[in-house]
Amino acid sequence: RDVVAKLILQKVENSQAFTWLSQLRHRWDEEIRDCYANICDAEFLYYHEYLGNTPRLVITPLTDRCYITLTQSLHLTMSGAPAGPAGTGKTETTKDLGRALGIMVYVFNCSEQMDYKSIGNIYKGLAQSGAWGCFDEFNRISVEVLSVVAVQVKSIQDALKVYHERQTFYFLGEEISLADTVGIFITMNPGYAGRTELPENLKALFRPCAMVVPDFDLISRSCWWRRASSKRVSSPASSSRSTTSARSSSRSRTTTTGACAPSSPSSSWPAHSSAGTASGRRTRSSCAPSATSTS
Question: What pTM was estimated for this model as a whole?
C-alpha cells in the first residue's frame, strides 16, 4: 500500500523509473519456468527454501536502502556489512532479505574466543551448502584473526567470479565444492567499547551500509492498519462460524437426548457404583447406532 502510494505521489509512469526499480520485485519466467527476484540491475533466481510462514518486516526507506546495498554487493560478487547502533534492524533486515529470496540465513554471534579455524569451518560449510551467513558483531573478533579471515573471504569471492568455469576451489588445504548462492554478511556496532577496527584488506571486500534509527511512526501505522484489516476481514467469518457451531451443537444435543433418554423420568445415569458405571457404558454403546442413524 505504501509503495503504491509512493509511486502515485511521484507520478511514476515508466517502468525504468528508479522508484520502481529500487523495489524488490518477483516475476515468473515462462521460458525457464521459474521465479526471479529483481532489484535495480540485479537479478536473483528464487531458491525455493521452505522457511515457514514467518512474520515479515515493515518496508521503510531504511529497509529499501539496505536491500539495495546488500543485493548490489551480491551482484558485484562482494559481501555486505550493515553497521549502526543496536536496535536498528541490521540482522533482521539481512534475514528478511533471505526470506524474500527463499534462501536460508544462518546467524552467528561472534566473540573474542573465535579463531580463524572455527570461522574457516563455518565458511567451508556455507560455501558447500550455498546458504547465507550473517556474522553478528563481527568487529568483536581480534585483529589478528580478522587478518586471516580476510584471506578466507577473498578466496571464496575469487572462486565465485570463476564459478562458470570451475565449481570447486581450494580452501583450508583441501578442494571443496562451491554453490554460487553463498553469501557472507557481517553486522557491526562501532559505538560500543571493546570493538576493533576492521583491517583495510577486509574492508575492501564488504560494501558498508549505514543503519540509523527506524521510522517507528511508519512501522506502528503499518502494524495498526494490518491488525485493523485482519479484524475487519475475520469478524463476519468468525461470527458465522460461531453461529453454525452453536446450531450444530444444539442439534447434536437434541438428537442425543432424543435417542439416549432414559425410559422413565425418575431414572438417571448411575454415578458411583461399578455396576452403575458398567450399566452406563452399556446404555451409551446401545444408543450409539441410534444416534448415528438419526444423523
Answer: 0.70
